[in-house]
Design goal:
TIM Barrel; Aldehyde Oxidoreductase, domain 3; 2 domains; 12 strands; alpha/beta; elongated; six-stranded parallel β-sheet; 279 residues; 41% helix
């Protein structure tokens, strides 16, 4: 997925979110006269990276296509406390019905982008790049991977269908790293083959077997440096396991090519945003 390329499942994702919230109808919104119209604005309460404007727009498009939204910031922008992000105008009922679902997307995806950028900034100046993982919220993988790009990160494989990642249990099931790599290349020769390794001996075996890249699982800094020296640029190396904002810089300085961090998508904290109607 390229930076700022919207996922193809965006409309479907929004439709499901509206269905789970609105159900058979917003009974509270029906307290308001049907012909009432209002202006509203979305305000940021903290510093963050904005992401999710297309999902926000799609919510109101599906609820009431007559709602007008004017954005004053775009995905990838740094936003500040008390900044007005967008202004809305239209049916009061529609504004209130879509408010929570629209904000859920905007807050969650902005949170993902914001956390991603914090990691990216920490390894700035090294040759390492930050990767996401498959540890995403169910049903929101493509949306969160888009948010990672907005935060300056890089997408790993989207799922189980577009690249190999031969992990410990796969190796046990097949019998050996060598057999797993050879079988992968025979069955699906056009797909990249990455192997998760836990020792320097496994690094050598995977390298000899013809793996395209290696995931160094829970290697300490000394082992990472040894693996980098052993591979000597022949294939790409990814470090993973127990990575935090406090440790990622030292990991990047060992010379690995990538560092994957599941926390940027699975441990995300929503950004504090509010939508207020004009009084």
């Amino acid at each position: 997925m390229n930076k700022y390329e919207l996922p193809k499942d965006l409309i479907e994702t929004v439709s499901r979110a509206i269905a789970e919230d609105v159900g058979s109808g917003d009974i509270t919104a029906q307290l308001i006269p049907a012909d009432t119209a209002k202006n509203a604005q979305v305000i940021c309460r903290e510093s963050a990276i904005l992401c999710g404007t297309a999902w926000f727009d799609e919510v109101f498009k599906q609820i009431d296509s007559n709602i007008q939204i004017t954005w004053q910031a775009q995905d990838g922008d740094t936003i500040s406390p008390n900044q007005i992000l967008c202004q809305l105008k239209g049916s009061t009922r529609a504004l209130l019905t879509g408010e929570r679902t629209a904000l859920n997307f905007l807050q969650l995806l902005s949170g993902t982008a914001t956390k991603t950028q914090a990691y990216v900034k920490t390894i700035s100046g090294t040759n390492a790049r930050l990767l996401d993982t498959r540890k995403t919220l169910p049903g929101l993988r493509h949306a969160q991977k888009y948010a990672v790009c907005c935060g300056g990160g890089t997408n790993h494989r989207l799922g189980l269908y577009d690249a190999f990642l031969i992990k410990e249990n796969h190796i046990v099931g097949v019998g050996s790293i060598t057999k797993a790599v050879h079988t992968a290349k025979q069955k699906f020769p056009n797909f990249p083959v990455e192997v998760e390794v836990e020792t320097l001996e496994q690094v050598q075996e995977a390298l000899t077997a013809g793996a395209d890249s290696l995931l160094l699982d829970n290697f300490n800094l000394s082992q990472l440096r040894e693996a980098v020296a052993l591979v000597n640029g022949k294939i790409k190396l990814e470090a993973s396991g127990g990575v935090s904002l406090e440790t990622i810089r030292a990991i990047a300085e060992t010379g690995v090519d990538f560092i994957s961090v599941g926390a940027i998508t699975k441990n995300v904290r929503a950004v504090d945003l509010s939508m207020l109607l004009e009084k």
